[in-house]
């Protein structure tokens, strides 16, 4: 009997602060080591994607967040060099905590939306663009 393969499920968070800034992490590990990325990671067995995004953002940034809107589902089998990873991206709101990098984050930094770094991991440029469109539609951004 042929062993079936299944994709992994991940989550990513678009954290907009001060109406025109975005929080990104600098990846500590491969793939895309030292590239900037949205906070996020793999969903653990038994948790919802909403629980996963709250956990991952807390682990990587020190921030307590609440998912507010679904940006989209990103399922291109080539989006992650480790294999087929489906990412569910959320627009989130900061509820507390303080910025402090840990686990897979080498750094956490706040960027002006007009001056984002060019070295973005995975397909995060596309997720950010989609998230900015959604945020504008929802009146979060001008």
Brief overview:
The protein has 142 residues and is of the alpha+beta class. The chain has helices at 49-61, 124-137; strands at 8-17, 21-27, 36-37, 40-42, 63-74, 85-97, 105-112.
Key descriptive features of the protein:
single chain, 7-stranded mixed sheet, alpha+beta, 2 helices, 39% strand, 19% helix, Nucleoside Triphosphate Pyrophosphohydrolase, 142 residues
The level-1 CATH class: Alpha Beta
Largest sheet entry: 7 strands, mixed
Instruction: Using the coordinates shown, work out and report the CATH topology.
Output: Nucleoside Triphosphate Pyrophosphohydrolase
How many domains, as an integer? 1
Question: Which structural category do the helix and sheet elements fall into?
Answer: alpha+beta
Distance between the termini: 56 Å
How many helices in DSSP terms? 2
The helix content, as a percent range, equals: 10-25%
Strand elements, count: 7
> Which stretches are poorly predicted, pLDDT < 50 over at least 5 residues?
none
Molecular shape: globular
β-strand amount: 35-45%
> CATH architecture, please?
Alpha-Beta Complex
* CATH level-4 homologous superfamily: Nucleoside Triphosphate Pyrophosphohydrolase
Q: Radius of gyration over alpha carbons? A: 15 Å
Mean pLDDT level: 95
Q: What is the ordering of alpha helices and beta strands?
A: EEEEHEEEH
Explain how this protein is built:
With 142 residues, the protein is α+β, with helices and mostly antiparallel strands. The chain has one domain (8-137): Nucleoside Triphosphate Pyrophosphohydrolase. The chain is built from two helices and seven strands; from the N terminus they run ββββαβββα. It has helices at residues 49-61, 124-137; strands at residues 8-17, 21-27, 36-37, 40-42, 63-74, 85-97, 105-112. Strands 1, 2, 3, 4, 5, 6 and 7 form a seven-stranded mixed beta sheet that branches. The termini are far apart. The model has no long low-confidence stretch (mean pLDDT 95).
């Amino acid at each position: 009997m042929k062993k079936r393969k299944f994709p992994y499920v991940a989550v990513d968070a678009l954290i907009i602060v001060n109406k025109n800034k975005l929080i990104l992490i600098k990846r500590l590990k491969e793939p895309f080591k030292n590239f900037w990325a949205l906070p996020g990671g793999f969903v653990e067995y038994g948790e919802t994607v909403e629980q996963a995004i709250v956990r991952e953002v807390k682990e990587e940034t020190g921030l307590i967040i609440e998912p507010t809107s679904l940006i989209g589902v990103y399922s291109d089998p080539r989006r992650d060099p480790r294999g087929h990873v489906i990412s569910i991206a959320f627009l989130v709101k900061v509820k507390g905590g303080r910025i402090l990098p840990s686990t897979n984050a080498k750094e956490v930094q706040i960027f002006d939306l007009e001056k984002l770094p060019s070295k973005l991991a995975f397909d995060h440029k596309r997720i950010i663009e989609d998230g900015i469109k959604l945020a504008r539609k929802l009146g979060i951004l001008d």
